[in-house]
């Protein structure tokens, strides 16, 4: 290994040692935030599949109920993800990358946009 690489690795080790550790509760909130983001993304993919089935004319009552359940789960996970993203931003000493936060917020807002679009299509009784 060259001297430059050894020096770089030594500096990285020193940098890691100098960073303060997060408390276990903040780490748990961060993990919960990431898990809720993954659940929300999974729900969004399920909504895409259900929307594709409905667009191709598959009009089964079971498919409609499943689509509504997936939308409800995505809404709840999205709401949890939004709340946890605020907590993660405020509680962590080193905030997560802004790209990750932006992707999490956008993916959490997608179910709300879909819900509003569904509400606009339903005729008033």
Provide a descriptive summary of the structure in words:
By secondary structure, the chain is an all-alpha fold. It has one domain. Helices cover 82% and strands 0% of the residues. The protein is built from four helices and no strands. It has helices at residues 3-18, 24-55, 61-91, 98-121. Helix 3 packs antiparallel against helix 4 (98-121). The chain is elongated and about 70 Å long. The model has no long low-confidence stretch (mean pLDDT 87).
Main features:
125 residues; 4 helices; elongated
Count of separate DSSP helical elements: 4
| Number of separate structural domains | 1
- Which spans of ≥5 residues are poorly predicted at pLDDT below 50? none
* Whole-angstrom Rg: 21 Å
Mean pLDDT equals 87
Q: Which outline best applies?
A: elongated
**Class per helix and strand makeup:** mainly alpha
The span between the termini is 75 Å
Helical percentage? over 70%
The total count of strands amounts to 0
Strand content: under 5%
Helix and strand element order? HHHH
Q: Describe the main β-sheet briefly.
A: none
């Amino acid at each position: 290994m060259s001297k430059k690489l050894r020096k770089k690795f030594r500096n990285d080790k020193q940098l890691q040692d100098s960073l303060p550790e997060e408390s276990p509760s903040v780490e748990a909130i961060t993990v919960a935030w990431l898990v809720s983001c993954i659940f929300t993304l999974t729900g969004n993919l399920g909504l895409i599949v259900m929307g594709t089935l409905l667009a191709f004319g598959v009009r089964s009552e079971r498919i409609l109920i499943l689509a509504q359940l997936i939308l409800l789960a995505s809404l709840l996970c999205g709401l949890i993800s939004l709340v946890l993203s605020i907590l993660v931003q405020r509680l962590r000493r080193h905030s997560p990358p802004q790209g990750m936060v932006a992707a999490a917020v956008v993916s959490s807002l997608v179910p709300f946009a879909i819900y509003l679009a569904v509400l606009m299509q339903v005729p008033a009784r």
